[in-house]
Design a protein that fits this description.
Keywords: Membrane, Transmembrane, Transmembrane helix. By secondary structure, this protein is of the alpha/beta class. The protein is about 45% helix and about 20% strand. It is built from 11 helices and 9 strands. Helix 3 packs parallel to helix 5. The chain is globular, with a radius of gyration of 19 Å. It binds ligand C2E and magnesium ion (3 copies). One magnesium ion binds next to loops.
């Protein structure tokens, strides 16, 4: 069992069950019910500028509160959501809950920077994404400048999906920030990035994790930071877990970081508490 899967955590797929279409069909039905029964909720993880420690964003991450199995991580069910045609439904729910939280924070006078929402490839392809963002921004009174859409780098690799670009360009023109998630794990060439409607890159946590042991990884991180600076776009470095990683990154520039060192993903109320404290004092010593 992998490290990510706690002993008592339910796993839907054992390796030898991956191709079992019956298991998958059952999970799909369960997920449909879960949407009906409002069993999905969000946790939130702050992003802070590594120099000023100001909160620059907060990422919304979906969880499934299963009636019997407890909290289920997205890695367990997103692949089925993607394949089953449920992605636009769940995506709409996630956007709505995220922007609703953002409105509550604004009303409480808490500056969270931007609310970051992960956008799935099928939702992007559905033709509904723009409408879902617009409706939710309207409902909750959130300006586009307060919103980031995180899209996977891989979304751009398939050029038959050029409709993706059109949708993202429309979001971008509205003022919604577009960030490429897990950057460095796909194969988008660096020159390709200059043609995309994007405001930032999220450096994948595999680089952060290996950076101190593997000089090549550190070179990539350095190059990405320089690339972003020369393109005048932002950087968020994912998966910062240790002071040593933080110290190294700090030598590389001025950008945002996200990871367990700053905060774990937290339920809404805990996030609100964290942000109130962050507004007052320093939460870790430089
Ligand atoms: P992601 O967007 O790259 O999100 C970062 C993941 O890394 C999250 O896992 C987060 O809990 C985890 N993480 C954050 N800091 C650290 C750290 O310091 N160390 C380690 N080891 N992990 C860290 P999570 O919540 O399980 O989400 C996994 C992936 O599922 C996300 O990767 C994203 O691609 C997808 N996902 C999550 N929520 C949503 C959603 O609402 N919609 C869509 N379409 N995808 C989502
Ligand atoms: Mg993300
Ligand atoms: Mg990521
Ligand atoms: Mg990831």
């Amino acid at each position: 069992q992998s490290k990510e899967n706690g002993k008592d955590r339910y796993t839907f797929f054992k390796p030898d069950m991956r191709a079992d279409s019956e298991t998958e069909a059952r999970l799909e039905r369960e997920l449909q019910d879960a949407i009906q029964n409002d069993e999905f909720f969000l946790v939130f993880q702050p992003q802070v500028n590594l120099r000023t420690q100001a909160v620059t964003g907060v990422e919304a991450l979906v969880r499934w509160q299963h009636p019997e199995r407890g909290t289920v991580s997205p890695g367990e069910f997103l692949p089925v959501i993607e394949k089953s045609g449920l992605a636009p439904l769940l995506g709409e729910i996630v956007i709505d809950k995220a922007l609703s939280a953002a409105r509550d924070w604004l009303e409480a006078g808490l500056d969270f920077g931007r609310i970051s929402v992960n956008v799935s490839p099928s939702h992007l392809a559905s033709g509904k994404l723009l409408d879902h963002f617009n409706t939710s921004m309207d409902t909750h009174g959130i300006a586009p400048e307060r919103v980031t859409a995180e899209v996977l780098e891989s979304v751009f690799l398939n050029d038959t999906r050029s409709g993706h670009l059109t949708t993202l360009k429309k979001l971008y023109d509205l003022g919604v920030h577009i960030e490429l998630d897990d950057f460095g794990t796909g194969y988008a060439s660096l020159s390709h990035v200059t043609d995309l409607p994007i405001n930032g890159l999220k450096i994948d946590r595999s680089f952060t994790r290996q950076m101190l042991q593997d000089p090549k990884k550190e070179i990539v991180v350095n190059q990405l930071i320089h690339l972003a600076r020369s393109l005048n776009i932002g950087i968020v470095c994912e998966g910062v877990e240790t002071e040593a990683q933080y110290d190294r990154l700090r030598m590389m520039g001025d950008f945002s970081i996200q990871g367990y060192l700053i905060a774990r993903p937290m339920p809404f109320k805990e996030t609100t508490g964290w942000m109130s404290e962050a507004a007052d004092d320093l939460y870790f010593v430089i």
